[in-house]
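User: Structure tokens for both sequences below?

Assistant:
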Amino acid sequence: MPTRKQILDFIKDSPTPAGKREIARAFGLKGQEKIQLKALLRDMADEGLIDGRRTAYHEMGGLPKVTVLRVVDIDDGEAIAVPDTWSPEDATPPPRVRMVERKGKAAMPALKKGDRVLARTEETRTGWIAHPMKKLATRTDQVLGVVEVDASGKAWLAPTDRRIRHSPPIADLGGAEKGQLVLAEPVGRSDRAGVKVTEVLGDPLAPRSFSLIAIHKHGIPFGFPDEVIDEAKDAAKLPLSEDKREDLRAVPIVAIDPADARDHDDAIWAEPDGQGGFRAIVAIADVSFYVRPGSQIDREARKRGNSVYFPDRVVPMLPEVLSADVCSLRQDEDRAAMVCHLAVDSEGQVTSWRFTRALVRIAGNIAYEDAQAQIDSGEADEHLKNLWACWKALAAARHRRDPLELDMPERRVVLDEKGRIAQIAVRERLDAHRVVEDFMIAANVAAAKALESKAAPVVYRLHEPPSREKLVTLKDYLATFGRKLALGQVITPGLFNRMLKDVSDEGERLLIMEAVLRSQTQAYYGPRNEGHFGLALGSYAHFTSPIRRYSDLLVHRALVDAFGLEQPAPRGSLPAHSGLSDRDREDLGKISEAISDTERRAMAAERETIDRYVAAWLSARVGEVFDTRITGVQKFGFFATIVGLGGDGLVPVSTLGSERFDYDEKAQVLEGQQSGTAYAIGQRLRLRLAEANPLTGALKFELEEGGSAPVEPRGRPMPLKKRGKHMVGQRGRPSNIRHQGRKKR
């Protein structure tokens, strides 16, 4: 019989999982010896020497050869994982495992925090490593919810995520009290085992709680580690060398931003060139000077990918000493900037560009509304008038390019001084917004083309044309309006624009606009140029927002390298180089995929938080009747949104009356068997608000008492027409995808 040590050595050195059969074969055991081996292995398990099952043992405190790991951190682009289930009897912390990701054709998508992976593990002199074999479905370990206590005194967790249908029992309150918002995690493998509270977050309906729910639900990094803050304070003290920067402090550059902007990362200036065109400057915060590759700040920024903006707070990509202070282009203060000089001809074409590192002093931080008011009243100074004149040339060139024009309403939550909701309204779209946007687009195009001219790496902002499947869906939808979409033609943004211009009815136009938006692919980042379909541009990068987007910081670093703009950091604690790191050059695809993921995470968190604020705003108006529009139809009911406000709510089919309703999946219609009343996407009708849950953002509607006939956008009864054996409204069905506007695309 082998000794305990021999068995442990074999298990440890075996390249494959070592169970009872493999151990017996390795030591030539047969018959009665196998029975003795079974007893020995049981004794070793009781003694705490080994763990696992008889088909695969591993050393206690170690890891099985093949096991499921969960990614808990991303350290400088490298995934760090722990065992997905870890409960050793001595309660030692789980080993941290470095994931060695596959390269080439066999590579799987970049791992992110929360991913579960089946992997082959290996213990080395420097610690545990793992080789991913297969990415598994993500299991949410932590649940955010509110503590509820029933009449018997038993505690339950009411989840804030509307997708979780059950309330698990709370096995360990962890000091939490009834009604408090808490973070909890499962205590066992089955739902019946319940959850234990790991963190008490406080009053779920208090101001600032709604964004906190989204932050925890989506795993958005919140506080900064002390070492990152200390390094940021160090970086903020870097001196600005006047002799190494172009001095533009005398140029009256202005920053035009939202009135409630938390940071100012771009500013613009223009003047006539005397030949019918313009000289223009787009000055962007020189974040790459302060945030250097390989620094603690850079690692944290890479992990976050972007800032996340909520009505009550911002979760910044960079510590506030940089994002809201030293990097922010504030009025009358000297600031480091990366500057794009543009030459714009009389037709709005950018004929040349030049990039420099500069010293700027912003002449003014102006709100969009104030800039627009000055222009409209004729009281604007010469500098503001020059900006508008240059923009009109850029806008003319944009019109000829014919990009996709979808002006979708954006909901805006206004809070009072105590963080309570004062107003929810649709944000007004002004020419001032378009002025800044077109200057930013011109600079973004220039950055992409400038890097291409030097054969330098580029992180492109990519937007591919709609897929055939989505175009077929759009074609079928347009047919409900009696409109056609020929799939054999070249699909361009202008095709959609012309389609929308042909729609005279404003309500119908909005529905088709939403459907066109739904047909579009999602924009993303990548190192290979695929063009930007929506903007009708062949080369496009993000250059203008490095305070809030890591993609822009990478573009700045590439420009530093390509055009010899390096300025070494004189402080020894900070890396000297401010260009791209070798690691980023070698694998831009990996970091591009990661920051695309963090962008989608931020968008989801922001959208859900707005939904919660809307539900909180409406919770005091339960019982009121609203004008709504149907946004989705299912066999269990239909979804509707309040016109002009937003907020999706369900009307269950069980509340539509005593008659039975048939569901036509293809036409997306619910039709009453006796009355013939039909509910289809796009119809408008008046509904009563029955429930509003601020914790989940969910609304529930019911038919207005005394009638339920759908109405057209203008308020007339909606006639029904036959389509085969089904009754459908004359209005078609829109997308139920909401669009949140952005200052910069």
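Moving on to the next sequence.
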Amino acid sequence: MSYKTERVTDPGRLAIPEPSTDSNEDRYRVLLESTPLVPWEADARTWRFNYVGPQAEQLLGFPVERWYEDTFWVDRIHPDDRPETIDTCLRLSEKGGHYDIEYRMIRADGAVVWICDVVGVEMQDGKPALLRGFLVDITKRKEAEAARAESEQLMRLMADSLPALIGYVDTNQRYRFGNKAFEEWFGISPAEIEGRSVRDVVGAERYEAIRANIETALAGDAVSYSMVFQFPDDSPHDIDVRYVPHIAENGTVAGFFVWAQDMTDQKKAAESLRRYRDELSHVSRVATMGELATSIAHELNQPLSAIVTNAQAAMRFLATKGSDPEEVTDALADIAADGKRAGDVIRHMRGLLKKGDVDRAPVNVNDLVRGVAELLHSDAVSRQVAIHFELAEGIPPVDGAATQLEQVVLNLMANALESMSGEEIAQRDLFVATALRDDGFLEIAVTDTGKGLDPELVSEIFDPFVTTKPGGLGMGLSISRSIVETHGGSLKASVDEQGRTCFQIVLPALTAETG
């Protein structure tokens, strides 16, 4: 701990009372001994006290008589401070005049007391002869300074350890604080940053780009913005910056705090996660379509068979003399209709199997549900399941990727159909309902009368690799929930009192205000 706070003071600053023999002597003594300061007088050659005020006993806990011992003052100086304190007093006393010095003394109970010793020197024949002064207890001030220094050091360590640039700029647009990140970002150490202008640190071109944000912060408003920042090694980084005004007690803006974070790695990770999620989504769609391959083949076989039959009929009509042209026209119309139906099935399959980025647009959930149901029609027929629709009319669309939302509904409806397989299922009904909720969200509910979901699995069914299907991967519902959540919604499962399993998709509706 340093005690070095010495300065030679102006000779007129300190008025040490001279010995007096007039009637004012008692008055001076009463005045001196009524202050919290400890007045003293000592021989400049021996440093032995000639006089010490009674306050001395409270200062160090020793009776005043002990203070008159030959080496009392030297012995009570803290051992770590003693050599330099004595050397400083000798050096400054030789100059005469007045000075003050700070050092530590040891109390009778062993406690440490910080002292400011204010000294006046009386010279005789050019040499110090008599010393007079006051001892001032500055322990509380020193403890406060130490606590403040420790707090500042802790704040500095914390700021330097954070993975962000942290600084403080005053109203003159000069940095008053900067953490270690300034060295990485600008090649300037924290010690060098203090006092330098923002323009000088960031460069003229970059300063002009952020100048309006700085002026906004100094006007008292918080600012957030993003930018591409070139590090000293010329590598580009995506940076998020925030300025927070510092409002003084009088209500004026004293400056602003700077927080800047390098988001390059996070944005790369987010992009990688998005691509990974899209890959999983595509794999899930392929797996789902693989499971439906037989039903889809049957779905295509029907219109193709009808096309062949109608084409053969048209040929017979044309080969028969006197045939009715309307019969040929009807056959051709049926061929066109069946061809369109087959094309729609193929188009739907291609859309679901398509890999790559998807565009978001307004999606009519009722049309989406009907389209998925059409794709699953043959599967429902083969499983003897009746599909019931309760679709609210006039509901607004949702903003989303139609292919991904189709995948979610397809996954839920396909799972429901599969749950109603087996001879033990007597009632086979699949209910699909849409509704606009009071909170402005659209709800799609898929309910089945199948085997039912174990209530204990309700909270785990959306976890990866959790499945109720023999040989299932346990990824379909996890991916479905991820898709719904990226659309700002939620996907939940529940079991009602009748044991029916219900999955609820909740999505924000696209209204005039949000669209």
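User: Anything stand out in the second?

Assistant: The domain at 359-515 is CATH 3.30.565.10 (Heat Shock Protein 90).
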